[in-house]
Design a protein that fits this description.
With 276 residues, the protein is mostly helical. Helix content is 83%, strand content 0%. Helix 1 (2-16) packs antiparallel against helix 8 and helix 9 runs antiparallel to helix 10. The radius of gyration is 20 Å and the shape is globular.
Length: 276
Amino acid sequence: MDSQILVALGLSMLGGLSTSLGALLVVINQSPNLKMLGLLQGFAAGLMLSISFFDLAHNAINSIGFLKGNLWFFAGVIFFALIANFIPEPTLAPISSAKGKKKDGDDRGKDIMKKHRRQVLFSGIITAVGISLHNFPEGMAVFLGSMKGLRVGLNLALAIALHNIPEGVAVALPVYFATQSKWQAFKLATLSGLAEPLGVIIVGYLFPSSLNPEILEGLLGAVGGVMAFLTLHEMLPLAFDYAGQKRAVKAVFFGMAFMSASLYFLERSLPADMSL
């Protein structure tokens, strides 16, 4: 069990620290390319959908039956829908609207600007808390995938890592604008991503060392439901907003094709006795 936790922890760190990469884009360039972020979200959405439907849900249905597999899948959908209802995913809203007020030299203009900075800073902190709470079940998903095999855990970690880059931007951008501190923006975004390996640690030590194979397959089916809801509810709208619908849809199918090809070549290249 300890080795499984270490593997899952390493994979979740890949996903969690990708928020730092998003923050890096902010501190290097105050105006990140939102169109590129939209295409990245579309690509990650394709990876997620491929994993959810063609891997996790498909295997659960084949292993424990159509009815049980679907029940687990939709239980995962409902679980994450409840999380999203109470903790809505923040968006990358432009925060340059008040910059023009800097030119107003009177005290009233300065007071408005100071108030706006406080509001933006509060927004950045709330965004960091929300993303941390979203990353926790993603860490659980990576852990459960790693229990199934290295391939499943690695694929989930890759898709989540791509998804987390724009989340790092969403945290760092308002914090940097409000504080003018690159370090504070980078630090808060990085801390929000560390909720993912924290989810692995907590769930890893709560789960028994050997799960019933039927329960494990069901839980993986539920993870498929979580990933599908996350993709359709949060990732695709962002991709459409930033990259445009046509480009985002192309990125989604490119991501699905990329994941299918990677699974095919990975399975052919690994020895037959190696666990996937």
